[in-house]
Amino acid sequence: MAQGGAKPKLVDLNKTGGSSYVDRKTAEKIKRRPKMEKFPFKCPAGVPKEVRKQFNYFEKLLAPRGNWTEGDIDGIMALCESKVAVAKLRKEVDEEGRTYWATTGQGNRVMKTNPACALLDKEIRRFDNYLYEYGLTPLGRIKLGISPDGGGPLDEIEDKDDAAKYF
Length: 167
Hints:
Blueprint: H1 11-14, H2 24-32, H3 49-62, H4 73-96, E1 99-103, E2 109-113, H5 115-133, H6 138-144, H7 155-160, H8 162-166
Antiparallel strand pairs: 1-2
Helix pairs in contact: 3-4, 4-5
């Protein structure tokens, strides 16, 4: 005779529900792993001050992952420039508004959308794509297999944790 109710979870899957995502040995191994403090490359000379500021910000977030090469500088700079562009466009839209009144050739007044709004939407999408690619969104971290502490990859976790292998 069949019993009703929910099927019991596997013991290993219960680990993911609470604060003990991995076993102690693996968590200690992750904590002891040396972390980079800076990228192996510097911010290029001649970039605007705002972009340099964003470079320093993202360096603090991304460098501890430790998987950077000289070839990554273009992507990091694109991420920084995109964030600065979003901030500038938001400021422009806030100052000028989302719409404006224009007069047609026949003397009629019509309300039009501020072109900066379309540019802002495109730039936000571009910036979101960069955030996803570099694992700075929750889904991006899952897709890249970045550990919950924001450190490196989940390699050590997957070796020991059956729940991590399952997902």
